[in-house]
């Protein structure tokens, strides 16, 4: 059964700078080891659709998503249409900067098609979730570096 995943990192940059980095969806391939391209269809806000291209080694697959929460300097989230997972980024101010949380929420369940595809093409749920957890840590580390450097 799929499970919720979460990763957290502290960033030595103000929330506004972290928001500027994390909410620029076109930059997602810079940060995520799985995302090849993320194309927002219009200005990013609640309701915006995206077209996404993902990879794992030589395996490549497209998805679409819709932004379901967009609160500047606080949180944004997008729902993957093909499997119903919700990916979110939450920004909290701290004494030394910002705490950034990335979360994959599967409380709405995951489609049977997606589960079968993960089993057949990506080695099964547990190995795939391990890959996602490592990818989340890598993503947050890259976002931290970008925000702290001001890029």
UniProtKB/TrEMBL annotation:
Lineage of source species: Bacteria, Bacillati, Actinomycetota, Actinomycetes, Mycobacteriales
Top-level taxon in the UniProt lineage: Bacteria
Name the record gives this protein: SRPBCC family protein
SUPFAM superfamilies: Bet v1-like
């Amino acid at each position: 059964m799929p499970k919720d995943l979460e990763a957290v990192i502290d960033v030595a940059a103000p929330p506004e700078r972290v928001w500027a980095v994390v909410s620029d969806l076109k930059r997602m391939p810079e940060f995520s080891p799985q995302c090849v391209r993320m194309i927002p269809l219009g200005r990013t806000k609640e309701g915006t659709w995206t077209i996404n291209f993902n990879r794992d080694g030589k395996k490549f697959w497209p998805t679409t998503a819709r932004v379901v929460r967009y609160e500047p300097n606080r949180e944004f989230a997008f729902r993957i249409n093909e499997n119903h997972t919700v990916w979110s980024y939450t920004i909290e101010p701290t004494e030394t900067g910002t705490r950034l949380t990335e979360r994959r929420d599967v409380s709405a369940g995951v489609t049977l098609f997606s589960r079968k595809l993960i089993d057949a093409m990506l080695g099964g749920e547990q190995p795939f979730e391990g890959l996602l957890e490592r990818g989340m840590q890598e993503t947050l580390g890259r976002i931290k570096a970008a925000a702290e450097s001001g890029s």
